[in-house]
Structure formats: C-alpha cells, structure tokens
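Dear V.,

Thank you for sending over the compound details. I've combined the ligand you provided, zinc ion, with the protein sequence from our construct and run the structure prediction for the complex. I'm sharing the raw inputs here so there's no ambiguity about protonation or stereochemistry in the SMILES, which I know was a concern on your side last time.
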Amino acid sequence: MFRKIKGQDHTIDLLRKAIENRRVSQAYLFHGSDGVGKFMTALYFGMAINCYGLTELRPCGVCTSCHKFLSLEHPDFVHVFPTPKLDLNSEGEIKKEEVRKQYLAYMQNKLHSPWADFFFKESTEIRRENIAMLMKRLELSIHEAKYRIVIVEEADQMNVQTANAFLKTLEEPPANTVIIMITERLQMILPTILSRTQPVYFKPLSRGVIESILEDQFDTPASNARTAARISAGNLKTAIRIASETVSVSRDWAFNIVDLAAKQDDLGFYTLIDKNREQKSKDQLEDILKYMRIIAGDLALLTVADSSEISNVDKQEFFAEICRTHPGIDDRIHEYLLFLEDLSRKIDGNVNPNLVMINLYLKTKRFLTA
Ligand SMILES: [Zn+2]
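Below is the predicted structure of the protein with zinc ion bound, written out as structure tokens.
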C-alpha cells in the first residue's frame, strides 16, 4: 500500500527498513510542506507496524488491523489535531453537539478527501484538553495492537503551556507506543520537543509526480494537469484544487488581461473591471498572478521551442498570434517576471485589489507592446 504514496520513495524506504530491522523509534517528526503525503504516510506506517500480512506486503490494507486503521477506528489509534474549544465532560466526551459534529466531520474529510482542507467554524489549536484526552488514552492498556499509534497533526499549533504538557509524554513515553508528529513549520517546534523525536523530511512533489497523480487518480485532462502541476509548487492539495476548477475564473481573468493588453484595448479593460465590481480576495489575486507567470513563461518558451512544450496547450493559437504580432517579447520577459514577483509581494500588504489589476494590465501592455 506504500506504493500509493507518490514521490516519497526515499522516506518510505527508510520507514520500511526501520520496521524490518525492528528499529522503530518511539517518536517521529514528519516535516515538509503541505500536501506532500505526510499524514497518509504516518497512517500507513502505523498500519505497517501492526499489519498481520506478509512482511513485504505490509501494510496489506485488507487484514482486520489495517481495516480498522483505514477507517480511523482502531481502538489503539489516537488522532490529535487542532480543534476549537472542545469543552469535555468528566468522561472525556465533547459536550456541545455542534462541536462534536464538526469534530467527526473533520475525521470524515480526512478519510474521504484528505487533499481538501477542512475548516472549523471557530479558530483552532491543539489545546490542553486535546493533550489531556491523549494522556487519558495513553494511561489505558493497549487493546489489541502490537504498537499503539499516535498521530499529532499540525504539531506546531500548540502554545508553550500545551507543548510542555505534551513534552512530559515524550520524556516518559508509554511502552509499545509510536508517536508521529506532523508539521509544515519545523521552526515553530520547541527545541525540547524536537530533540526527543526522529525527524523525517518530506520533499515537495515533482511536477511529473503531480501530473501523473492528477491524470491517473483524478481523471484530469493532460493539459490541465500540466498547468496545475506548474502552479502548485509541489503541493498536491493546491494542484487538485486548481485542476478541479473546470472553468477557472482566475485563468479566464489572466487570459482576458493578456488579450486586452495585446490589443491595447483600454476601454475593454476598464469596462471589464467596472462590470466586476466586487473586490478580489488576496487568494484570487495570487491565483491570477500565478497564471500570468505561466502565460509569460509560455510566451518566452514559444520564442525558442516548439508549441507542444507550453503549459497552456489549449491556447497554442492564441500564443502564436501574440508572438507573431508582438516581436521582442523575449527581451522583456525577465523584467516582466520581476514585476510579477514584486506585485505578488505587495498583495501581502494592504493594497487595493482594483489598483493591483490596473497596474497588472498596464505593465502587461508595456511587456507585450513596448
Ligand atoms: Zn494488514
């Protein structure tokens, strides 16, 4: 089943060997950017440790132990993640029905669409009560597993007080228990915690890996997969989100701007802005800029390579026409890309989204028609 995790062969080899050589650590810290397979690897690792299948097939995914892990219902699996205030009763159950529902929905999301982010209605962190719940579970004896498996997601989301409570668990680890902490922000983990774990790095996924996952598992057409892979910077979650926008509003905006700028159709541009008065969010602006970067890259590529190499394969004629009517683009591309980078930094500040769009249009016009 480890084969299902793509692009992390080295890491998975390391973990398999640890199991084979009976050198499984008591605490791991899986780190690396979002959307590269840390959670699924942690779950499969826990499954492999406990699997009843043949050594080389572990985790088999079909034995009773694997089954229980796969549904996140194994009695010896403890899952800790940032939550809103849970307000537990003396039995350790969540008092409020609404919060309990959201808590269960989080788990369902993890099971059925782990690539999608789940948002609680209130702000979340790993709280004292989450750790208290964990400690209560660790006091009980193990039900049936060889090793109890604890996965702590977003382990950096603990305040110092909570982290210190958790540290006690790491300092006196319960027998036959493997704790796997997961984080995107290694620098936020307290050194005292860090020093008691074995770090395992997950690298960003290559474009090729993302493309093949999108095509094989999500039936994404090749051209969309290629664009999504380029934009996502190794993050599968982002790639899936972009690929699933069948009609991408941000992509349309980017192509509209390029089209109007190439025609020097200022009136057309301002009419477009006027018709879409609602302000764009930072994320939308970022997405538009990402598409602009890819379009600029495609234009630059066309001056030196065959048109089948470009990302936006469905727009070959559009690009060919622009290159034919606007010579010298390759001389100005570098400056234009620097401008896009600079603009993307400004979006992080408090700039007016419409001004960003206007600035983008004017610079694109200069880039194409200078
Ligand atoms: Zn199994």
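A first observation: Residues 51-53, 59-60, 63, 65-66 surround zinc ion (CB under 6 Å).

Warm regards,
I. M.
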